[in-house]
Every structure is written in C-alpha cells, then in structure tokens.
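Q: what sequence does this backbone want?
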C-alpha cells in the first residue's frame, strides 16, 4: 500500500466505510471490533494516522495519553471498568494488521469466560 493511501481506520473516521462507532471526539474515535476476541472488544483510534506505536514521537505524548484516558472512559461506560485489558500490537510479527495505531480494549462481562489469546 502506498504511504499516501488512507488507512482503513482513516476511511472509517471519514465515514467512507461503515463501522459501529461507540465514541468520538476531536482527537480519536472508538469502534467495536468487527471480529471481537472477547465479549467487549473496542478499538481506540487516533484521528492522526500514526502507523505503529514506535512511530510516535515526543510530540505525540498528548494524543497517546488521551487514547489511554478514553480507553478507561469507554470501559467504564461499557460496565467493565473493574476488569479490562489494553493491547497494542506493534508490527506485523506481533499481529498488527492495520497500520494505524489503535488500542484494543478487551473485557469479559462473565468471570467464567477467558480472553482469547490468539492474535492479541
Ligand atoms: P491489529 O491486528 O492489532 O492491527 O488489529 C486490527 C483490528 O481491526 C482487528 O482486531 C480487526 O478485527 C479489526 N478490524 C478490521 N477491520 C475492521 C472494521 N472494518 N471494523 C472494525 N474493526 C475492524
């Protein structure tokens, strides 16, 4: 893919591709994952398309912090603030498939269920 091509998530942010949007503000968007790996599986995505976490610079500290804060807020609204996980896949060898930084918010509302480890 050319570097100039909008990412899948940019196309979702621009409403070119439909998605189940659960939250958005001027800096980020949160969608439900299309292939959930847990009963609650949301993606916190910055509007700014940083490809991977390691591509972030010092000037991105504010947006990185904002993404973390939003992850906590959407977890609270989803009712899973007592037990959730954040995952960032960095690089194809770590399972990253969309090269537009995103935080996976994963939770089970049922204590008997376990997280799926595959691809997380
Ligand atoms: P990663 O593998 O960390 O890059 O995560 C990419 C995530 O995006 C995967 O969990 C996919 O299921 C999810 N995904 C891919 N396409 C869509 C889509 N159109 N809407 C919502 N989530 C998607």
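A:
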């Amino acid at each position: 893919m050319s570097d100039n091509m909008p990412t899948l998530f940019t196309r979702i942010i621009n409403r070119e591709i439909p998605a189940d949007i659960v939250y958005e503000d001027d800096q980020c968007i949160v969608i439900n994952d299309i292939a959930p790996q847990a009963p609650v599986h949301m993606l916190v995505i910055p509007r700014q398309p940083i490809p991977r976490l390691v591509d972030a610079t010092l000037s991105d500290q504010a947006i990185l912090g904002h993404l973390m804060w939003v992850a906590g807020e959407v977890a609270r609204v989803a009712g899973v603030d007592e037990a959730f996980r954040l995952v960032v896949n960095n690089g194809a060898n770590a399972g990253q498939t969309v090269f537009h930084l995103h935080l996976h918010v994963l939770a089970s509302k049922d204590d008997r269920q376990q997280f799926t480890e595959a691809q997380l």
